[in-house]
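Supplementary Methods. Inverse-folding protocol.

Structures were first reduced to a discrete structure-token string of length 411. This string, shown here, constituted the complete conditioning input.
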């Protein structure tokens, strides 16, 4: 027989949950012993159990961790159940999850010392209506990540909110089979970031007031590389004009204020049916990874990028020339008339000289009156040659839609 626990009271309560007889619901309410009550429930939980946090503010001084499979942690709503880590004394995260088949829903985590929620090495993880926030506004002292699943398979983020992360609000890294939808990222350095991952759908989200709205990155020196098959569609990436507040040395510290979408070193990326505008520097940038690396297996150039059916608003009216060279080069080459879409044009030397394979060429189609600037590397380096392509029609072509990402969401 299993027990239901309400703070320090226990009741016998046999339940059917996920087809399992005698699963338990552990109901926990705010108290002076909130940390002990929650962590004890997470340790003693068995597969099929629910940890239910009532409405109120839970003041926690240490990290919470879960390593039991098939557990659901739920609150009464992201604005009703709040786990506040403002006085956190130890631990690198607010909540850490390392077990499979876990659902997190209907609560908030505020002011974690490090990452708000880190999930590592799991299969099947759902974030439903979860909010992470640093309430003091943008600051390099804020934790790096809000929602932070890494090295995982079958990741669902739905109806979530992430505010104030000094790296990325909603981040999925080195993972595969990913859906990020119906969510909002605001006042982060990167709003939504998919990094070194395979098969991701990012749709029906709002990214606003970040430094960069949506980032599709691939970086060297990581166990999983060659990010591919990422669809970004039906999102609004607008007004991402918050000054970059990443701590010194962080890779996203190079992102210029006012970027809507950045694609770096990924392949097979499809950007379509988005609204992108009111970004100070550029609406879409497609770039090569430009830093030195000793990783001989890493391929730094984007390829097979498709951009179509997007609606663009104003951009480039207040470019951030303080971060890296991107905005400065754009400003100079465009004579201050910044484009909607930028490609740095960098390729392996053989492709610069002989051309890209047909299946790796970028296709840009049906984007209204969008403007483009693509650098011609040889022309940029040699005086008297054309240094850029400005005619967007040179990239017109037939779109080859990527497949929808699907997995069983009802684990």
């Amino acid at each position: 027989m299993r027990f239901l626990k309400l703070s320090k009271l226990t009741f016998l309560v046999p339940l059917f949950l996920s087809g399992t007889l005698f699963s338990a619901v552990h109901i926990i309410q705010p108290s002076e012993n909130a940390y002990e009550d929650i962590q004890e429930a997470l340790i003693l939980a068995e597969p099929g159990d629910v940890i239910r946090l009532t409405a109120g503010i839970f003041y926690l001084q240490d990290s919470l961790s879960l390593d039991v499979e098939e557990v659901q942690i739920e609150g009464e709503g992201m604005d009703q159940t709040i786990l506040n880590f403002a006085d956190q004394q130890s631990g690198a995260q607010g909540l850490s999850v390392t077990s499979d088949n876990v659902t997190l829903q209907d609560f908030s985590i505020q002011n974690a010392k490090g990452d708000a929620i880190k999930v590592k090495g799991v299969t099947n993880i759902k974030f439903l209506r979860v909010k992470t926030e640093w309430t003091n506004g943008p600051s390099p002292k804020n934790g790096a990540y809000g929602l932070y699943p890494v090295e995982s398979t079958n990741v669902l983020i739905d109806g979530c909110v992430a505010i104030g992360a000094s790296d990325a609000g909603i981040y999925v890294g080195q993972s595969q089979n990913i859906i990020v939808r119906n969510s909002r990222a605001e006042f982060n350095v990167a709003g939504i970031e998919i990094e070194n991952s395979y098969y991701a759908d990012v749709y029906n989200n709002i990214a606003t007031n970040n430094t960069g709205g949506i980032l599709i990155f691939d970086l060297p020196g990581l166990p999983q590389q060659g990010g591919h098959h990422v669809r970004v569609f039906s999102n609004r990436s607008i007004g991402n004009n918050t000054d970059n507040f990443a701590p010194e040395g962080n890779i996203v510290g190079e992102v210029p204020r006012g970027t809507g979408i950045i694609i770096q070193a990924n392949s097979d990326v499809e950007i379509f049916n988005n609204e992108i505008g009111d970004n100070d520097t550029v609406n879409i940038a497609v770039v090569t990874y430009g830093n030195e690396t000793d990783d001989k297996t890493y391929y730094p150039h984007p390829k097979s990028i498709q951009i179509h059916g997007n609606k663009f608003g104003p951009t480039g009216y207040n470019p951030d020339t303080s971060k890296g060279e991107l905005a400065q080069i754009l400003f100079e080459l465009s004579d201050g008339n910044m484009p909607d879409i930028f490609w740095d044009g960098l390729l392996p030397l053989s492709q610069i000289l002989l051309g890209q394979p047909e299946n790796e060429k970028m296709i840009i189609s049906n984007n209204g009156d969008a403007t483009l600037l693509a650098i011609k590397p040889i022309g940029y380096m040699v005086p008297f040659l054309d240094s850029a392509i400005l005619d967007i029609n040179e990239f017109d072509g037939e779109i080859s839609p990527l497949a929808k990402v699907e997995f069983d969401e009802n684990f």
